[in-house]
């Protein structure tokens, strides 16, 4: 075995993040590490990369016991990591990034030509045809991902940890990345692959290890595993009802109109569109990244103000000139960039949930601490937020739980129209299903929801109506049985057909 | 209880400092009742610490929003000049106070708008007023040291109420008032939320722009109070020297108070203890009778020691050290610790 972990244990105040976990990685193997949010995947990785010091247990690499105390020490030992949010410096050139920290020098100065040659040599074999002297920011996330891998491989060369590397890649880019990974596998590299995309796990990996609540549940060969059993391992119970298909029944129901956007648009963001939102309706917004999905949502929530058109409800025009105005009109918005725009990381779960409500009540009418705690406990139970309590700092929660906190903030406001931008991005299967169930639950009570998602399955499962966005224009609207992966993809892809449908 | 725990390091530091000064100057803690007023080095610290204490209150709020206000020292000079100008031009005590506070508020609105609306980085935005403000103060005083004799105004600098110096009462009242305003309303939470993540707070409906301007106005008002006290104390306005470098002491007080320059959680009480620590150092060095040329060096050394002891990094090192050397029997360590205290 290349890497052996024996009874690894790590405790945080209030939680045992890892409890006697065993894990093996062979050379020339891609090993998937799966589990729900808070199962201990990140903690395990952080113990491996030296970000955390383990409390107990043993890590050995090539038969030698190691205890890296920092990421750079882990790199020197041979353990490299590539994260979902690429941690390279986008404002430097590709070559500078690749040679960062060990630039070739001549007479004490950085030797630019040697640097570029070295960078080109490092990228050889990755199938990238890029100019290493250009800024990294000029290339796509996929290219940056591969640059990050090239850097990690050159620095470490034994074990490569890939933490959600595909979360922001499209399917073609994913294939390129997988090609690179397979090649590295053939060269004898051991890779740990963390992903929420089960398809990718099945198509790429050799073995799968499932963690749940800090314990190792199982390690199996991927080929011997079927999908349902894997999900059961991750959730710890059998899947009761598949979310898909549950909503089809009430597609045809007539709905009274809640809101209507007429000719609503903003130059450079989204072309003017007409949209009617029914009471208790789930609207899906599909389209490629950058097609105008998020821009539509931001316009409706007043993050950017509209240049044309108006929004109306039964009693007349609504002011949507700022988020505050939109909130006053009964709107809510859980943004795509959870960390940057959603959570207030240093504050507690309690304060994060109460924040929007407090902002609406005004500073002079504080929500008492006991009220806040009650509110938080209520939503912790209702949304199954994994936290040690209402006073835990939100930044310490896992991604899925942070998302639930943002959802709780809005549900507590009881909005009539809630916009969810990529509500399930980077979230594991369990939380994913819970959030979809939640959407179902609140719309039954009359709330209307707009869901933006890149996962078509998800839209098909929850939406009564799907709006397709392409090139900053709403190009198609699909209802009822029209909503299938095929129709959505066709509307996104084919201009002529899309225009017809619109 | 948690509030007390939060300020424990500052309380311990202050106590240790006071004990140290007492070693050099045994009469340090003596307070006498003379002519209906309390006198003694401690009262002197409470009085002299007023300007930095007041500035630290406003600075704490600004820093909690991830900002910084470099202009407060200059605003002290401007508002001091306005006070003296108003009193010599016959606006009366009330008029002088109102004009001074208004000048402080205007300075705050200027800073706040540059930061919150124009989006200039706080350190640059407030640097503008820091450098230009002394010129404004000189225009008000027409380049002279503007002196006055007005007992009503002088009362704010050197008067006593119930035996306690008025400046001390003003900063205490301001600190308590602002703390209550922050903690009994939701302002404290909203300020912290904006400081940690302005974008997320704005999307949650917090009026971040208005809140940001408000904290700079609060800082300007605190500076105005400090300016009134400074001017009243010397019965004159010195545009060149009033409040000189006080912004740095105020920032230092906030930092000694354990407030992060990255914004978020804040404690006004801890910042005030920071101000008292700085003033105790200043007064203590004088009392201990060191030659005056040593003052700044000794102050710097003490501040360094305090900040190093408070450093969270160091806490980690202590922990590691204790673990390394903690293999000895627990009883020994306990007695060793007990002996130290």
From TrEMBL, chain A:
This is Arabinose import ATP-binding protein AraG. One of its GO terms (molecular function) is ATP hydrolysis activity. The keyword Protein biosynthesis does not apply. Its EC number is 3.6.3.17. GO terms for cellular component: plasma membrane. Residues 3-238, 253-496 form the ABC transporter domain. PANTHER family: CARBOHYDRATE TRANSPORT ATP-BINDING PROTEIN MG119-RELATED, GALACTOFURANOSE TRANSPORTER ATP-BINDING PROTEIN YTFR. Pfam families: ABC_tran. Its main location: membrane. InterPro entries: AAA+_ATPase, ABC_carbohydrate_import_ATPase, ABC_transporter-like_ATP-bd, ABC_transporter-like_CS, P-loop_NTPase. The keyword Nucleus does not apply. It is a peripheral membrane protein. Keywords: ATP-binding, Cell membrane, Hydrolase, Membrane, Nucleotide-binding, Repeat, Sugar transport, Translocase, Transport. It is found in: Cell membrane. It comes from the Bacteria. The gene is araG. SMART domains: AAA.
TrEMBL record, chain B:
The keyword Membrane applies. Pfam families: BPD_transp_2 (PF02653). The chain crosses the membrane at residues 12-33, 45-63, 161-181, 202-230, 242-262, 269-290, 296-320. Its main location: membrane. It is a multi-pass membrane protein. Keywords: Cell membrane, Membrane, Transmembrane, Transmembrane helix. InterPro entries: ABC_transp_permease. It comes from the Bacteria. It is found in: Cell membrane. GO terms for cellular component: plasma membrane. One of its GO terms (molecular function) is transmembrane transporter activity. PANTHER family: ABC TRANSPORTER PERMEASE PROTEIN YPHD-RELATED-RELATED, GALACTOFURANOSE TRANSPORTER PERMEASE PROTEIN YTFT. This is Inner membrane ABC transporter permease protein YtfT. It comes from Tritonibacter horizontis. The gene is ytfT.
